[in-house]
Design a protein that fits this description.
The complex is a heterodimer of chains A (360) and B (398). Chain A has 15 helices and no strands. With 360 residues, chain A is mostly helical. Classes of the chains: A mainly alpha (360), B alpha/beta (398). Chains A and B meet through helix 2, helix 3, helix 4, helix 7 and helix 13 of A and helix 1, strand 2, helix 3 and helix 4 of B.
Chain lengths: 360, 398
Amino acid sequence: MKRRMESYGKMVQLLFMNPVFFIGISLLLVFIMTSMVLILTGAPPFSVYKQIFLGSLSTGSKFGHVIKAWIPLTLCAIGLLYTFRINLWNIGVEGQMIIGAVFCTFIIRLFPNSPYPIMILFLAFFSSMMGGALWALLAGFLKTKGGVNEIFAGLGLNFVAQGLILWLIFGPWKRPGVASMSGTEIIPKGLWLSLIERTAIPPAGLILTFLALFVTYLLLKYTKIGLGLKAIGLNPKASLLFGLKPSLYMLLAMVFGGGLAGFAGCIQVTGVYHRLIPSISSNYGYLALLVVMLSNYDIRLVPIVSFFFSCLNVGSIQLPMVLHIDSSLSGVIQGSLVLTFLALHALHRRLSTPKEIQPS
Amino acid sequence: MATKPFVKIFFVITLFFLFISGSPALSAQPDQTFTFGLLLVGPMNDHGWSQAHFEAGKYVEEHLKSSKMLYIDKVNPADRPGITIPQLADDMIEKGARLIIANSDDMSDGIIEAATMHPDIYFIHVSGDGALTGKAPKNLSNVMGRMEYGKMMAGFAAAMTTKTGKIAYLGPLINDETRRLTVSCYLGARYAWEHVLKRKPSELQFEVSWIGFWFNIPGVTSDPTQVTGSFFNSGYDVVISGIDTSEASIVANQKRMAKKDVYAIPYDYKNACDGASAVCLGVPYYNWGPSYVDLISQTMKGNLKQQWLWLSPNWQDINNPDTSHVGFIKGPALSDIASKALDLFISDMGTGKIQLFKGPLNYQDGSVFLAPDEVANDKKIWYMEQLLSGMKGQSRVQ
C-alpha cells in the first residue's frame, strides 16, 4: 500500500514537472477558482469572461487601448525585474512613476511653445527617468545606509509623492481660477505623443518598451551586472567573498527600476492624459508587482502577463456598461488569479525540490 | 525551444477566450434604435448629481420610444484608474451610440478630445462652456440649468431657519460655476435676512469650505463628513451642500439624533431629502429630462446645431417634470412661515420683481462686481471671479 502511494506521488510529481501539463492544470484551476469567486459575487462567469474578451480585443480601437495600458504597465514590470533579481521589494514603484510624471510635466511647462517638440519630448523622457531613479535612490539609501526595510521606505515615499502631486495640482500648477483634482492645463498638442491612426497606440512608447524589454533581457542574462544582481539576491553574504558590493548593486537595481517607472509616468502624461492628474499612475505600479510575480520573475513571460492584465483592465469596462455589474469585479478576478497562480507556483517549487532540503 | 511553453500559454489563453466568447459577431449590429451614451462622473445611485442624470436618461427612453441608453458611472480617474473619456466614447460609438453626454465639468478636456476624433457623432457636455468660448468642435454643445435660482431659494430657506445666524456652505472645488452658485446662496440668504426678517446684514455669517472635488475621494479631498461635522460643532446650524453626494444631510441627521437643532439643504437630486426628513429644509435640483429629450430629438432628426444652453426654471410651475429645468422641493423640516415666505420669494423672482444680481455688489476683495442699479448679464454671472463681500471662505486657491 505504502509503495503504491509512493508511486502515485512520483507520478504526480513527474506530471507537475511537465511544463505543458503544469500550464494546462494551472489555467484550469485558475478558471475554476475565478468562476467560483464570480458565482459567489452573483456574476455570471461566462458572460463576464466573454465581455472582458470582447471589450478588450474585438476591435482595433479596443486593442489599441489595451496596448496603451500595456506600455506603462510593462515598463514598470521590467523595472521591477531588476529589484526582484536582487531580492528587493520595490513597492515604491508607484511613487517613482508619479515623480517621473512630475519631472516630465516640469520640462513641458518650461518649454511649452518650443519650435523643437521632439527635443523637448526627449528631454522630458530623460528627466522623468532621472526623477524616477532619484526617488528610487532615496528608498535605496534608506535601505543600504539607514537599514530601513525597502517596503516601508517605498510605501512612505509613495505617500510623499502623492502629497507632492496634489500640492502641485492644487497649488503652483493649478489651472487659472480653478482648484480641482481634474489636473493641470492640457499640455500643448505638439508635445502629445503621436498615435497610430485610429488607435490609441503611441508608436514611440511601443518601440521604447520593446527596447527596454530587449536590453533588460540581455543585461540580466548575459552581463556581469545581471550575474551580480542574481548572486547577491541569492546570497548577499556569500557574494562578498566574490568581491561584489551588495549596497552598490542594490542602488543600481533601484536606479534601473525607478528610471523605467519614471519613464512610464511620462508616457502617461504625454501619451494618455495629456496633463498631470492626481492619479496619473493609474495604479500600474502596484499592478506591475502582480505581473512580475505571476510571471515567476521571468522576463519572457512579463509582456504576456502584462498584456493579459491590460485586457482585464480595458475589458472590465464592459461589466458596468453591458452587464450592469461593477467593474471593480475585475479586481476580484485579478486577485483570485494571482492567489491561485502563487499557490500553484509554491506547489511546483515544493515538488521540484528534493525532500531532503525542503524546509520543515 | 525554451520559449515554447510561453508561446503555448499565449495561444491557450487566446483559444480559451475565443471559446468562451462563443460569438461570431464581434461588433454591434445596426438597427433602428437611436442609441445615446451617458458618462456619469459619480455612482448612478448617488442621490445626487449623477443619479439626476441617470434618471433623465431613463426619462428619454420613456419619451422617445426608439431611443436606448448606454451608460457608465464612476467615470473619474480615482474610481477607474487608467480609463480615459476618449476610450469610453470609442467604446460607446462602437456599440452604436450616435450622441454622447458627458455629465461633468471634470470631463471637459476628454470630451473635447473625443468630439474632435469623431466629427460625425454629437456630443453634449453638461456644465461646460466650450461651445461658448469656441474651444469645442462644432459637434459639441453645452447644456446647463440656471441653478442660481435654486441656490437662491436654498439660501433663502436657510436664512429663514437659522437661529444662530450662521449658515455654512459645503463647497466642492473652486471654479466659476461653484463661485456663482455659492454667491447665489448667499444672495438668497441675505435677501431673507434683510428684507423678510428685517435683520442687519452684518449679523448674518455665511462661510464656505471647499473639499476639493465634487465628492469625497479618500486621501485626496477633504472629508465632507468631517467638514460638515466641524461646521455644526462650531455653531453653524444650517449647512447647504454644494457637492454631488449627501453627506451634509446624513451628518445633520446624526446630529439631530444627538438632540442638536441643526438643518441641511442637499443638492442636485429631487429625492435627496428622503431619509433626512427631520433636518431637510428642501433641495434645489436639476431636471435634465426635458433638455435631453429636446437635444436627442434634434439629433435624431439630424438638425442639432452647436449651442450653449443655460436653461431657466418654468416660473409657472418650477417643479413640473416636463417643462422646468431647475426646481426646488421644500423639505419636511421647513417651517410654515418660511414656506410661505419662500413661495412669495419664488413668485417675485419669476415676475422679475426681485433681481438679486443687481448692484451695488462688491467682490470679496472690495472691488466692484456690479455698480449701483447695474444688472449682471449672463457672462458676468457665468464667469464669477470671486465670492462677494460679506462671505467668508476662499475665492481662489492661494
